[in-house]
Predict the structure of Transposase.
Amino acid sequence: MHDSLGLQPLMRGIPPIRSRRGPRRRRPAKLHADKGYDYDHLRKWLRERRIRHRIARKGIESSTRLGRHRWVVERTVSWLAGCRRLHRRYERMAEHFLAFVGIAAALICYRRLTN
């Protein structure tokens, strides 16, 4: 499945964010994405939901400017990919896979805190 097809379900699945004052935020304020998400229907969908977007355009912009926001996510995904069980999805049930992701994230945090 292409990444752009998963953007809308991903954005809908974000839980409400608790804030110090006022009501809970139901949507993120902005989105940074690479050229894989450069589609007019996605830009329109984000605009309708009043989400500011910074999506690199194919053939026009370089995605290197997005790198300073993206590298945190890429680094975390590479840490998770280092876990053998998660490298290829061995589990058939999504609940088991998510449990292993949780365990891997806890181990990564533990290792980072002890160093």
